[in-house]
């Protein structure tokens, strides 16, 4: 948490405060995170039990839902929920006010829990934990694997949020101790750590919005110029450069797939591939028509022009995810005697197999092999191929929906306006979020627009539900 170690007296004071948090001091040491251990430094001067506890961070976290959901607390009883409910004024990030930083982070944590449907996650985790305790669970390996994966994913979300809560409480505690010890350097470091948490909280808010089926995929971003000739082609090139800058800011890999240059300037159409985790989840907020108002650099009369460009975003599902996932519970397997000439057992045993995929009604039959097992394997291969074709058609339909914004690039269809003259502003017409610095937006600073759109979309979905 900090770049140096606490003094011995401050370390002793920290342990004292921790032990006052709960009746069980060992529990307090266990639940206080890695920041404490790193600040205390060598533990040779501590009592043996305390030293051992601080050396083994693996014991600080439990896999049980009850332990994972226990709220961390400062020595004077502050929890994340109580901080969020105090109504402390949230000032700009540049202000060195710990209450402001703490309140902002606490509000973010509260919002993250709402977006993750925290109550449902906790209840679902308890249910899965009960299932995992069943002695006959692994009699069905497919079901057991599915339950284990879901439990692991939910526990990962719980642990991530709880660790963030614990980190906030620890920074507040360290700041208070630093002031009691008149340790200006530690106070400055703790204040800086709170400000860093406030910035990373916004990222976590955004990540909590990305729970769609394909949100974790990479994607293609396609930009097409609207009517307006060179003006719109130049605007399309500006939009494409904006997305390339945005993707590179986020650490994504950008590859130009296709580019059709304009006759004089800009592009008629271009496609880039954006490789990285949750690229589609973020970029899907940009689908639609983008409008630019400016003094034209191509007009000798220096008149104001309006230009349009359309953006489409397509997820890259990849080979693995493009295959239809067949569930055993969706299959009806029928056995019958094979017909026609065959070997010794071909017509005397029920070796032929017909597999019916109940949800789609697609069937596959095989009776040519000598054994029932071989016929089943062949029938499953045929069924998989047929369902894969169905999946490809479904993806094509989905991609068509993502690219429909390219059809009408004109007034009345825009999602965002970029005004460079007579005033300077970028406004999202879906959320009414706006900024007065269009240069930063065109240089790739899009995260606030994306966050506002995704959060408003989630709110609308929750209201309709």
UniProtKB/TrEMBL annotation:
Gene Ontology CC entries for this record: cytoplasm
Domain Peptide chain release factor: 176-286
Gene Ontology terms: biological process: translation
InterPro entries from the UniProt entry: PCRF (IPR005139), Pep_chain_release_fac_I (IPR000352), Pep_chain_release_fac_I_sf (IPR045853), PrfB (IPR004374)
Gene3D superfamilies for the chain: 3.30.160.20, 3.30.70.1660, Release factor
This protein's UniProt keywords: Protein biosynthesis
Pfam families per UniProt: PCRF (PF03462), RF-1 (PF00472)
Top-rank taxon: Eukaryota
Family designation: Belongs to the prokaryotic/mitochondrial release factor family.
PANTHER family named among the record's database cross-references: CLASS I PEPTIDE CHAIN RELEASE FACTOR, PEPTIDE CHAIN RELEASE FACTOR 2
Alphabetized HAMAP family for the sequence: Rel_fac_2
Name of the protein: Peptide chain release factor domain-containing protein
Organism this protein belongs to: Urochloa decumbens
Upper classification of the organism: Eukaryota, Viridiplantae, Streptophyta, Embryophyta, Tracheophyta
């Amino acid at each position: 948490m900090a770049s140096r170690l606490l003094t011995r007296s401050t370390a002793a004071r920290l342990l004292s405060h921790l032990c006052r948090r709960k009746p069980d001091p060992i529990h307090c040491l266990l639940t206080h995170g890695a920041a404490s251990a790193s600040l205390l430094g060598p533990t040779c001067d501590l009592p043996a039990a305390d030293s051992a506890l601080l050396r083994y961070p693996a014991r600080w976290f439990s896999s049980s839902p009850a332990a994972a959901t226990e709220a961390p607390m400062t020595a004077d009883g502050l929890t994340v929920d109580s901080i969020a409910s105090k109504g402390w004024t949230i000032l700009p990030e540049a202000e060195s006010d710990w209450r402001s930083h703490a309140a902002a982070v606490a509000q973010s944590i509260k919002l993250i829990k709402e977006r993750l449907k925290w109550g449902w996650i906790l209840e679902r985790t308890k249910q899965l934990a009960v299932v995992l305790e069943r002695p006959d669970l692994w009699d069905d390996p497919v079901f057991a694997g599915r339950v284990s994966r879901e439990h692991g994913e939910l526990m990962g979300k719980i642990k991530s949020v709880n660790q963030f809560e614990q980190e906030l409480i620890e920074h507040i505690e360290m700041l208070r101790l630093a002031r009691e010890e008149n340790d200006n350097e530690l106070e400055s470091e703790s204040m800086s750590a709170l400000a860093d948490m406030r910035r990373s909280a916004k990222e976590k808010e955004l990540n909590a919005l990305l729970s769609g089926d394909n949100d974790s995929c990479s994607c293609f971003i396609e930009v097409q110029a609207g009517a307006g000739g060179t003006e719109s082609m130049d605007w399309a090139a500006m939009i494409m450069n904006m997305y390339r800058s945005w993707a590179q800011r986020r650490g994504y890999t950008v590859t130009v797939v296709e580019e059709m240059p304009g006759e004089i300037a800009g592009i008629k159409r271009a496609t880039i591939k954006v490789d990285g985790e949750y690229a589609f989840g973020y970029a899907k907020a940009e689908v639609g028509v983008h409008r630019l108002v400016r003094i034209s650099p191509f007009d000798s009369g220096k008149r104001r022009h309006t230009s349009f460009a359309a953006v489409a975003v397509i997820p890259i599902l990849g080979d693995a995810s493009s295959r239809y996932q067949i569930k055993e519970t969706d299959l009806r397997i029928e056995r019958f005697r094979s017909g026609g000439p065959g070997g010794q057992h071909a017509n005397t045993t029920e070796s032929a197999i017909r597999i019916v995929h109940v949800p789609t009604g697609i069937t596959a039959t095989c009776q040519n092999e000598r054994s029932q097992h071989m016929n089943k394997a062949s029938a499953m291969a045929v069924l998989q191929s047929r369902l894969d074709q169905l999946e490809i058609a479904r993806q094509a339909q989905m991609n068509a929906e993502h690219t429909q914004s390219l059809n009408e690039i004109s007034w009345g269809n825009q999602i965002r306006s970029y005004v460079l003259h007579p005033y300077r502003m970028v406004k999202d017409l879906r959320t009414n979020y706006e900024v007065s610095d269009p240069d930063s937006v065109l240089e790739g600073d899009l995260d606030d627009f994306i966050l506002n759109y995704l959060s408003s979309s989630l709110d609308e979905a929750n209201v309709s539900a």
